[in-house]
Protein backbone atom coordinates (compact mmCIF):
# COMPACT_ATOMS: atom_id res chain seq x y z
CA UNK A 1 0.00 0.00 0.00
CA UNK A 2 1.51 3.33 -1.00
CA UNK A 3 1.74 6.11 1.55
CA UNK A 4 -1.26 8.14 0.36
CA UNK A 5 -3.49 5.05 0.23
CA UNK A 6 -2.31 4.21 3.74
CA UNK A 7 -3.18 7.71 4.95
CA UNK A 8 -6.66 7.63 3.40
CA UNK A 9 -7.28 4.26 5.06
CA UNK A 10 -6.67 5.99 8.42
CA UNK A 11 -9.89 8.01 7.87
CA UNK A 12 -11.94 4.99 8.86
CA UNK A 13 -10.54 5.13 12.39
CA UNK A 14 -12.45 8.37 12.92
CA UNK A 15 -11.73 11.46 15.00
CA UNK A 16 -10.26 11.13 18.50
CA UNK A 17 -9.93 14.66 19.99
CA UNK A 18 -6.88 15.30 22.12
CA UNK A 19 -3.41 16.79 21.90
CA UNK A 20 -1.25 14.01 23.33
CA UNK A 21 -0.67 11.96 20.18
CA UNK A 22 -0.14 14.93 17.87
CA UNK A 23 2.27 16.47 20.36
CA UNK A 24 4.27 13.25 20.44
CA UNK A 25 4.10 13.03 16.65
CA UNK A 26 5.55 16.52 16.32
CA UNK A 27 8.29 15.57 18.79
CA UNK A 28 9.12 12.57 16.62
CA UNK A 29 9.33 14.79 13.56
CA UNK A 30 11.78 17.18 15.26
CA UNK A 31 9.33 19.90 16.33
CA UNK A 32 8.92 21.39 12.82
CA UNK A 33 6.22 23.80 14.04
CA UNK A 34 8.90 25.77 15.87
CA UNK A 35 10.42 26.85 12.55
CA UNK A 36 7.63 29.38 11.88
CA UNK A 37 5.05 31.58 13.58
CA UNK A 38 1.59 30.04 13.49
CA UNK A 39 -1.80 31.71 13.19
CA UNK A 40 -4.77 29.50 14.07
CA UNK A 41 -8.08 30.23 12.33
CA UNK A 42 -11.13 28.58 13.87
CA UNK A 43 -14.88 29.03 13.80
CA UNK A 44 -17.95 27.20 12.58
CA UNK A 45 -18.13 28.74 9.10
CA UNK A 46 -15.92 31.06 7.06
CA UNK A 47 -12.60 29.97 8.51
CA UNK A 48 -11.26 28.74 5.16
CA UNK A 49 -11.96 31.95 3.26
CA UNK A 50 -10.67 34.02 6.20
CA UNK A 51 -7.47 31.98 6.34
CA UNK A 52 -6.99 32.17 2.56
CA UNK A 53 -7.51 35.95 2.58
CA UNK A 54 -5.07 36.48 5.45
CA UNK A 55 -2.49 34.31 3.68
CA UNK A 56 -2.94 36.31 0.48
CA UNK A 57 -2.36 39.53 2.41
CA UNK A 58 0.83 38.15 3.93
CA UNK A 59 1.93 36.94 0.49
CA UNK A 60 1.42 40.45 -0.84
CA UNK A 61 3.63 41.83 1.94
CA UNK A 62 6.54 39.78 0.60
CA UNK A 63 6.59 37.18 3.37
CA UNK A 64 6.96 33.47 2.65
CA UNK A 65 3.67 32.11 3.92
CA UNK A 66 2.18 28.66 4.34
CA UNK A 67 -1.59 28.03 4.23
CA UNK A 68 -3.02 24.84 5.72
CA UNK A 69 -6.71 24.12 5.06
CA UNK A 70 -9.09 21.18 5.24
CA UNK A 71 -10.78 19.32 3.77
CA UNK A 72 -9.40 19.48 0.26
CA UNK A 73 -11.86 19.66 -2.63
CA UNK A 74 -10.28 17.48 -5.32
CA UNK A 75 -6.58 16.81 -4.68
CA UNK A 76 -4.89 16.10 -1.35
CA UNK A 77 -2.02 18.53 -2.05
CA UNK A 78 -4.52 21.44 -2.01
CA UNK A 79 -4.22 21.36 1.79
CA UNK A 80 -0.64 22.68 1.69
CA UNK A 81 -0.02 26.02 -0.03
CA UNK A 82 3.22 28.01 0.04
CA UNK A 83 3.51 31.42 -1.57
CA UNK A 84 0.04 31.09 -3.07
CA UNK A 85 0.80 27.79 -4.84
CA UNK A 86 -0.10 24.30 -3.67
CA UNK A 87 2.93 22.14 -3.07
CA UNK A 88 3.81 19.56 -5.69
CA UNK A 89 2.06 16.22 -5.06
CA UNK A 90 5.43 14.46 -5.35
CA UNK A 91 6.84 16.60 -2.53
CA UNK A 92 3.81 16.01 -0.36
CA UNK A 93 3.87 12.24 -0.87
CA UNK A 94 7.62 11.95 -0.36
CA UNK A 95 7.37 13.85 2.93
CA UNK A 96 4.39 11.73 3.98
CA UNK A 97 6.63 8.69 3.53
CA UNK A 98 8.91 10.09 6.23
CA UNK A 99 6.00 10.89 8.57
CA UNK A 100 4.41 7.44 8.18
CA UNK A 101 6.69 5.33 10.40
CA UNK A 102 6.48 7.84 13.26
CA UNK A 103 2.70 8.08 12.91
CA UNK A 104 2.23 4.32 12.67
CA UNK A 105 4.17 3.76 15.86
CA UNK A 106 1.85 6.17 17.69
CA UNK A 107 -1.43 5.10 16.13
CA UNK A 108 -2.01 8.69 15.03
CA UNK A 109 -5.32 9.61 13.39
CA UNK A 110 -5.75 10.85 9.84
CA UNK A 111 -6.01 14.51 10.79
CA UNK A 112 -3.17 14.35 13.31
CA UNK A 113 -0.94 12.95 10.57
CA UNK A 114 -2.06 15.68 8.14
CA UNK A 115 -1.24 18.39 10.70
CA UNK A 116 2.19 16.92 11.36
CA UNK A 117 2.79 16.59 7.63
CA UNK A 118 1.79 20.22 7.07
CA UNK A 119 4.16 21.45 9.76
CA UNK A 120 7.06 19.47 8.29
CA UNK A 121 6.30 20.64 4.76
CA UNK A 122 6.13 24.27 5.84
CA UNK A 123 9.31 24.06 7.92
CA UNK A 124 11.24 22.56 5.03
CA UNK A 125 9.77 25.11 2.58
CA UNK A 126 11.16 27.91 4.75
CA UNK A 127 7.90 29.67 5.53
CA UNK A 128 8.01 32.51 8.04
CA UNK A 129 4.36 32.27 9.03
CA UNK A 130 1.81 29.50 8.63
CA UNK A 131 -1.91 30.16 8.58
CA UNK A 132 -3.50 26.99 9.97
CA UNK A 133 -7.22 26.33 9.58
CA UNK A 134 -8.54 24.51 12.64
CA UNK A 135 -10.33 21.24 11.95
CA UNK A 136 -13.02 20.38 14.50
CA UNK A 137 -13.74 22.66 17.45
CA UNK A 138 -10.50 24.11 18.76
CA UNK A 139 -9.56 23.12 22.29
CA UNK A 140 -8.75 19.51 21.41
CA UNK A 141 -8.14 19.91 17.68
CA UNK A 142 -4.75 18.71 16.46
CA UNK A 143 -3.82 22.18 15.19
CA UNK A 144 -4.00 23.42 18.79
CA UNK A 145 -0.75 21.60 19.54
CA UNK A 146 0.88 24.61 17.87
CA UNK A 147 1.57 27.79 19.83
CA UNK A 148 -0.08 30.60 17.85
CA UNK A 149 1.11 34.20 17.84
CA UNK A 150 -2.41 35.18 16.79
CA UNK A 151 -5.74 33.36 16.92
CA UNK A 152 -8.82 34.03 14.80
CA UNK A 153 -12.36 32.84 15.56
CA UNK A 154 -14.73 33.71 12.74
CA UNK A 155 -18.07 32.92 14.34
CA UNK A 156 -20.02 30.27 16.21
CA UNK A 157 -23.02 28.29 14.98
CA UNK A 158 -24.53 24.88 15.68
CA UNK A 159 -22.56 22.13 13.95
CA UNK A 160 -20.87 18.92 15.13
CA UNK A 161 -23.09 19.18 18.21
CA UNK A 162 -22.53 15.52 19.10
CA UNK A 163 -18.87 16.36 19.80
CA UNK A 164 -18.80 20.09 20.63
CA UNK A 165 -22.06 20.53 22.55
CA UNK A 166 -25.58 21.51 21.61
CA UNK A 167 -25.54 25.18 22.62
CA UNK A 168 -23.75 28.17 21.14
CA UNK A 169 -22.12 28.78 24.50
CA UNK A 170 -20.70 25.27 24.70
CA UNK A 171 -19.37 25.45 21.15
CA UNK A 172 -17.88 28.91 21.80
CA UNK A 173 -15.99 27.50 24.77
CA UNK A 174 -14.52 24.77 22.56
CA UNK A 175 -13.55 27.28 19.86
CA UNK A 176 -11.99 29.55 22.50
CA UNK A 177 -9.45 26.83 23.26
CA UNK A 178 -7.23 28.15 20.45
CA UNK A 179 -6.77 31.47 22.27
CA UNK A 180 -3.63 32.15 24.31
CA UNK A 181 -3.41 34.30 27.41
CA UNK A 182 -1.75 37.62 26.67
CA UNK A 183 -1.61 36.96 22.91
CA UNK A 184 -3.51 38.76 20.18
CA UNK A 185 -6.83 37.48 18.85
CA UNK A 186 -9.56 38.72 16.53
CA UNK A 187 -13.12 37.49 16.19
CA UNK A 188 -16.45 37.98 14.50
CA UNK A 189 -18.54 36.08 17.08
CA UNK A 190 -21.82 37.51 18.35
CA UNK A 191 -21.48 39.99 21.21
CA UNK A 192 -23.14 37.76 23.82
CA UNK A 193 -20.46 35.11 23.29
CA UNK A 194 -17.48 37.44 23.72
CA UNK A 195 -17.24 36.95 27.53
CA UNK A 196 -16.67 33.22 26.93
CA UNK A 197 -13.73 34.00 24.65
CA UNK A 198 -12.32 36.55 27.08
CA UNK A 199 -12.15 34.00 29.87
CA UNK A 200 -9.01 32.70 28.13
CA UNK A 201 -7.14 35.93 28.86
CA UNK A 202 -6.30 36.77 25.24
CA UNK A 203 -6.13 40.33 23.90
CA UNK A 204 -9.29 40.13 21.78
CA UNK A 205 -10.38 42.62 19.15
CA UNK A 206 -13.93 41.95 18.01
CA UNK A 207 -15.81 43.12 14.94
CA UNK A 208 -18.63 45.27 16.24
CA UNK A 209 -16.72 46.35 19.36
CA UNK A 210 -13.05 47.39 18.92
CA UNK A 211 -13.37 47.25 15.16
CA UNK A 212 -16.18 48.11 12.75
CA UNK A 213 -16.65 47.59 9.04
CA UNK A 214 -19.03 48.62 6.30
CA UNK A 215 -19.42 46.78 3.01
CA UNK A 216 -20.82 47.96 -0.32
CA UNK A 217 -21.80 45.24 -2.76
CA UNK A 218 -20.14 45.22 -6.14
CA UNK A 219 -22.51 42.52 -7.38
CA UNK A 220 -20.78 39.50 -8.85
CA UNK A 221 -17.42 41.28 -8.44
CA UNK A 222 -17.58 41.07 -4.66
CA UNK A 223 -17.61 44.02 -2.28
CA UNK A 224 -15.80 47.14 -1.19
CA UNK A 225 -15.03 47.01 2.52
CA UNK A 226 -14.10 49.83 4.89
CA UNK A 227 -12.52 48.77 8.17
CA UNK A 228 -11.97 50.95 11.23
CA UNK A 229 -9.93 49.54 14.10
CA UNK A 230 -7.46 50.66 16.78
CA UNK A 231 -4.75 49.99 14.16
CA UNK A 232 -6.23 52.49 11.71
CA UNK A 233 -8.77 52.82 8.92
CA UNK A 234 -8.53 51.37 5.42
CA UNK A 235 -10.68 50.48 2.43
CA UNK A 236 -10.20 47.51 0.12
CA UNK A 237 -12.00 45.28 -2.36
CA UNK A 238 -12.64 41.57 -2.06
CA UNK A 239 -13.93 39.12 -4.68
CA UNK A 240 -15.64 37.09 -1.93
CA UNK A 241 -19.39 37.17 -2.49
CA UNK A 242 -22.20 37.85 -0.05
CA UNK A 243 -22.40 39.70 3.27
CA UNK A 244 -20.56 36.84 4.98
CA UNK A 245 -17.75 37.06 2.40
CA UNK A 246 -17.29 40.74 3.18
CA UNK A 247 -17.23 40.01 6.92
CA UNK A 248 -14.66 37.25 6.49
CA UNK A 249 -12.48 39.62 4.45
CA UNK A 250 -12.85 42.32 7.12
CA UNK A 251 -11.82 39.86 9.82
CA UNK A 252 -8.79 38.79 7.78
CA UNK A 253 -7.82 42.45 7.36
CA UNK A 254 -8.16 43.01 11.11
CA UNK A 255 -5.90 40.00 11.72
CA UNK A 256 -3.42 41.37 9.19
CA UNK A 257 -3.35 44.68 11.04
CA UNK A 258 -2.58 42.87 14.28
CA UNK A 259 0.32 41.17 12.52
CA UNK A 260 1.66 44.58 11.51
CA UNK A 261 0.80 44.58 7.79
CA UNK A 262 0.41 47.87 5.97
CA UNK A 263 -2.50 49.11 3.92
CA UNK A 264 -1.00 48.30 0.52
CA UNK A 265 -0.41 44.62 1.34
CA UNK A 266 -3.89 44.25 2.81
CA UNK A 267 -5.49 45.82 -0.25
CA UNK A 268 -3.45 43.81 -2.72
CA UNK A 269 -3.96 40.51 -0.93
CA UNK A 270 -7.69 41.05 -0.41
CA UNK A 271 -8.16 41.67 -4.13
CA UNK A 272 -6.08 38.64 -5.15
CA UNK A 273 -7.65 35.93 -2.98
CA UNK A 274 -9.44 33.00 -4.58
CA UNK A 275 -11.29 30.40 -2.54
CA UNK A 276 -12.59 27.57 -4.76
CA UNK A 277 -15.91 25.88 -4.11
CA UNK A 278 -17.33 28.60 -1.89
CA UNK A 279 -19.68 30.89 -3.83
CA UNK A 280 -17.54 30.20 -6.88
CA UNK A 281 -19.19 30.76 -10.26
CA UNK A 282 -17.90 28.69 -13.17
CA UNK A 283 -18.97 28.60 -16.79
CA UNK A 284 -20.13 25.24 -18.09
CA UNK A 285 -20.40 25.27 -21.83
CA UNK A 286 -21.65 28.28 -23.79
CA UNK A 287 -25.07 28.60 -22.13
CA UNK A 288 -24.76 27.51 -18.50
CA UNK A 289 -23.13 28.84 -15.34
CA UNK A 290 -22.86 26.94 -12.08
CA UNK A 291 -22.39 28.53 -8.66
CA UNK A 292 -20.66 26.14 -6.26
CA UNK A 293 -20.97 26.45 -2.50
CA UNK A 294 -20.23 24.14 0.40
CA UNK A 295 -23.29 25.16 2.43
CA UNK A 296 -23.35 22.10 4.67
CA UNK A 297 -25.03 23.40 7.83
CA UNK A 298 -27.99 25.76 8.48
CA UNK A 299 -25.79 28.80 9.13
CA UNK A 300 -23.90 28.22 5.87
CA UNK A 301 -27.13 27.65 3.95
CA UNK A 302 -28.61 30.88 5.31
CA UNK A 303 -25.46 32.73 4.23
CA UNK A 304 -25.76 31.27 0.73
CA UNK A 305 -29.42 32.27 0.53
CA UNK A 306 -28.65 35.82 1.69
CA UNK A 307 -25.82 36.11 -0.84
CA UNK A 308 -28.06 34.99 -3.70
CA UNK A 309 -30.81 37.41 -2.75
CA UNK A 310 -28.26 40.20 -2.56
CA UNK A 311 -27.17 39.31 -6.09
CA UNK A 312 -30.75 39.55 -7.33
CA UNK A 313 -31.24 35.80 -7.69
CA UNK A 314 -34.80 34.94 -6.66
CA UNK A 315 -35.29 31.43 -8.02
CA UNK A 316 -32.64 29.08 -9.35
CA UNK A 317 -32.26 25.37 -10.21
CA UNK A 318 -30.62 23.64 -7.27
CA UNK A 319 -28.45 20.54 -7.17
CA UNK A 320 -28.10 19.37 -3.58
CA UNK A 321 -26.31 16.61 -1.74
CA UNK A 322 -25.11 16.45 1.86
CA UNK A 323 -23.62 14.28 4.56
CA UNK A 324 -26.17 12.25 6.48
CA UNK A 325 -24.92 13.43 9.88
CA UNK A 326 -25.77 17.10 9.30
CA UNK A 327 -28.89 19.08 10.28
CA UNK A 328 -30.42 18.41 6.88
CA UNK A 329 -33.85 19.80 7.75
CA UNK A 330 -32.27 23.11 8.79
CA UNK A 331 -30.22 23.32 5.59
CA UNK A 332 -33.24 22.51 3.41
CA UNK A 333 -35.41 25.10 5.19
CA UNK A 334 -32.90 27.82 4.28
CA UNK A 335 -32.42 26.74 0.67
CA UNK A 336 -35.87 25.62 -0.44
CA UNK A 337 -37.37 29.11 -0.95
CA UNK A 338 -34.70 29.79 -3.59
CA UNK A 339 -35.23 26.61 -5.59
CA UNK A 340 -37.08 26.70 -8.90
CA UNK A 341 -36.40 22.97 -9.17
CA UNK A 342 -34.39 20.52 -7.08
CA UNK A 343 -32.07 17.77 -8.31
CA UNK A 344 -30.84 15.52 -5.51
CA UNK A 345 -27.64 13.49 -5.75
CA UNK A 346 -24.77 12.26 -3.61
CA UNK A 347 -20.99 12.40 -3.60
CA UNK A 348 -19.85 9.07 -5.01
CA UNK A 349 -16.66 8.90 -2.93
CA UNK A 350 -18.17 9.79 0.45
CA UNK A 351 -19.65 6.95 2.53
CA UNK A 352 -21.12 9.65 4.81
CA UNK A 353 -23.32 11.04 2.03
CA UNK A 354 -27.09 10.94 2.55
CA UNK A 355 -29.06 8.96 0.00
CA UNK A 356 -31.00 11.23 -2.38
CA UNK A 357 -34.24 9.43 -1.45
CA UNK A 358 -33.66 10.49 2.17
CA UNK A 359 -33.18 14.09 1.08
CA UNK A 360 -36.31 14.05 -1.09
CA UNK A 361 -38.47 13.54 2.00
CA UNK A 362 -37.30 16.91 3.35
CA UNK A 363 -38.32 19.02 0.35
CA UNK A 364 -41.88 20.21 -0.16
CA UNK A 365 -41.18 21.40 -3.70
CA UNK A 366 -41.03 18.68 -6.37
CA UNK A 367 -37.60 17.10 -6.61
CA UNK A 368 -35.90 14.60 -8.85
CA UNK A 369 -33.08 12.18 -8.17
CA UNK A 370 -29.87 11.90 -10.16
CA UNK A 371 -27.73 8.90 -9.18
CA UNK A 372 -24.42 10.71 -9.84
CA UNK A 373 -23.16 14.30 -9.85
CA UNK A 374 -22.44 14.02 -13.57
CA UNK A 375 -26.04 13.02 -14.23
CA UNK A 376 -27.28 15.93 -12.09
CA UNK A 377 -25.23 18.40 -14.12
CA UNK A 378 -26.55 16.99 -17.37
CA UNK A 379 -30.09 17.93 -16.33
CA UNK A 380 -29.39 21.61 -15.68
CA UNK A 381 -31.11 24.11 -17.98
CA UNK A 382 -29.39 27.10 -19.64
CA UNK A 383 -28.56 30.01 -17.33
CA UNK A 384 -27.42 30.02 -13.72
CA UNK A 385 -27.77 27.01 -11.41
CA UNK A 386 -26.48 26.32 -7.91
CA UNK A 387 -24.71 23.18 -6.68
CA UNK A 388 -24.41 23.13 -2.91
CA UNK A 389 -24.20 21.05 0.25
CA UNK A 390 -21.32 18.76 1.09
CA UNK A 391 -17.81 19.93 0.22
CA UNK A 392 -17.21 16.37 -0.95
CA UNK A 393 -19.99 16.86 -3.52
CA UNK A 394 -18.43 20.15 -4.59
CA UNK A 395 -15.09 18.38 -4.87
CA UNK A 396 -16.59 15.91 -7.34
CA UNK A 397 -18.59 18.46 -9.36
CA UNK A 398 -15.81 21.03 -9.76
CA UNK A 399 -13.45 18.87 -11.86
CA UNK A 400 -16.41 17.88 -14.06
CA UNK A 401 -17.01 21.56 -14.81
CA UNK A 402 -13.32 22.27 -15.41
CA UNK A 403 -12.57 19.10 -17.36
CA UNK A 404 -10.00 18.00 -14.78
CA UNK A 405 -9.12 14.65 -13.26
CA UNK A 406 -10.04 13.95 -9.66
CA UNK A 407 -8.60 11.58 -7.08
CA UNK A 408 -10.66 8.41 -6.91
CA UNK A 409 -10.23 7.82 -3.21
CA UNK A 410 -12.88 7.36 -0.54
CA UNK A 411 -13.52 10.53 1.46
CA UNK A 412 -14.36 10.61 5.15
CA UNK A 413 -12.43 13.68 6.35
UniProtKB/TrEMBL annotation:
Instruction: Give the matching InterPro entries.
Output: Folylpolyglutamate_synth, Mur-like_cat_sf, Mur_ligase_C, Mur_ligase_C_dom_sf, Mur_ligase_cen
GO CC annotation: what is one? cytoplasm
Q: Which reaction does it catalyse?
A: (6S)-5,6,7,8-tetrahydrofolyl-(gamma-L-Glu)(n) + L-glutamate + ATP = (6S)-5,6,7,8-tetrahydrofolyl-(gamma-L-Glu)(n+1) + ADP + phosphate + H(+)
Residue ranges of the Mur ligase C-terminal domain?
Answer: 277-378
| Keywords associated with the record | ATP-binding, Ligase, Magnesium, Metal-binding, Nucleotide-binding
Query: Mur ligase central domain spans which residues?
Result: 41-256
Which enzyme type, at the first EC level?
ligase
Domain of life per record: Bacteria
Q: What is its EC number?
A: 6.3.2.17
Q: Which GO terms describe its molecular function?
A: ATP binding; dihydrofolate synthase activity; metal ion binding; tetrahydrofolylpolyglutamate synthase activity
Please verify whether the record's keywords include Membrane: no
Family, per entry: Belongs to the folylpolyglutamate synthase family.
Question: What PANTHER family does UniProt report for this protein, alphabetically?
Answer: DIHYDROFOLATE SYNTHETASE-RELATED, FOLYLPOLYGLUTAMATE SYNTHASE-RELATED
The name under which this protein is listed is tetrahydrofolate synthase
Q: Which organism is it from?
A: Deinococcus irradiatisoli
